[in-house]
Amino acid sequence: MTDCIFCKITNGDIPSYKVYEDEIVYAFLDLSQVTAGHTLVVPKQHVDDIFEYDEELAAAVFARIPKIARALEKAFPDAKGMNIINNNKELAYQSVFHSHIHLIPRYSQEDDFSIHFGDHSQQYSPAEMQKIADTIRAAF
């Protein structure tokens, strides 16, 4: 893709703080640095989001995530956890439309990053839960 900032980064047209590269992925520091070490992992092949991955690309990209995560863990021994996030489409907060995975080391509950999943279990009866599961299963 000619006007994609992440394609330009992986091609070396735009400088980045590279932390890892191989034939499949390019990993570099997110300029926002939500926490120290916040890294983006992008496939070198342009895909807009998870919905454009084929099984081969998904297996190759996601197989590299633990290796990069372990390097971050080793580099930042004060980190007590890590969020791994992949936003897909604008409503889900994707802002660059070249698929990317955020690896965000977590140092404390006060490190200016929060993900909170509310408990909505009371909103769905067992019959509604079964209907949702059946609908998803039928989509395969």
TrEMBL record:
<feature type="short sequence motif" description="Histidine triad motif">
    <location>
        <begin position="98"/>
        <end position="102"/>
    </location>
</feature>
<dbReference type="InterPro" id="IPR036265">
    <property type="entry name" value="HIT-like_sf"/>
</dbReference>
<dbReference type="InterPro" id="IPR039384">
    <property type="entry name" value="HINT"/>
</dbReference>
<feature type="domain" description="HIT">
    <location>
        <begin position="5"/>
        <end position="115"/>
    </location>
</feature>
<dbReference type="InterPro" id="IPR019808">
    <property type="entry name" value="Histidine_triad_CS"/>
</dbReference>
<protein>
    <submittedName>
        <fullName>HIT family protein</fullName>
    </submittedName>
</protein>
<dbReference type="InterPro" id="IPR001310">
    <property type="entry name" value="Histidine_triad_HIT"/>
</dbReference>
<dbReference type="InterPro" id="IPR011146">
    <property type="entry name" value="HIT-like"/>
</dbReference>
<dbReference type="Pfam" id="PF01230">
    <property type="entry name" value="HIT"/>
</dbReference>
